[in-house]
Amino acid sequence: MKNLLKKYLSWSSKEKWLFWQVLLRMIQIKTQLRFKNFETFKKWYAELDTEEYDFDELKQAIQRAATVSPKHFTCLPQALVFKKMARPYNVILVIGVQASEKMNLDAHAWCEQQGKVLIGDVPDFQYLPLWIWE
């Protein structure tokens, strides 16, 4: 956490502002996922208002905010925040699975545009898409 604070102090005011916007959205989304059924969550998510952001700046802010609590801000909250905050760009959210040595099935969420993974790319990315949210 000390290292994060040191890095935080070196960021520009714009980067700090976006970091806090993303962190707030991740907390809201994680909380709503925890306490609402999926249909109610989708209605809430559709009404969630946000501004437009640059892909690269947004991706960096999400990665930074996820380091605050990696156990809680996993791939799904990250992908949902990215999809919402990059909504004018027609980003799709994908949830997929792959066989894993540790588990029988490993699930993952990511965002992509025209087949290119924008956030949620991982080494040995061989996930089979099960659900796509356009």
Plain-language structure description:
By secondary structure, the chain is α+β, with helices and mostly antiparallel strands. The protein has one domain (2-133). It contains 5 helices and 4 strands. The protein has helices spanning 2-10, 13-35, 38-47, 55-66, 75-85; strands spanning 92-98, 106-113, 116-119, 128-133. The chain has a 4-stranded antiparallel sheet with strand order 3-2-1-4, with helices on one face. The longest helix has 23 residues, at 13-35. It starts with a helix and ends with a strand.
How would you sum up this structure in a few lines?
This protein is α+β, with helices and mostly antiparallel strands and 134 residues long. Helices cover 49% and strands 19% of the residues. It has one domain (2-133).
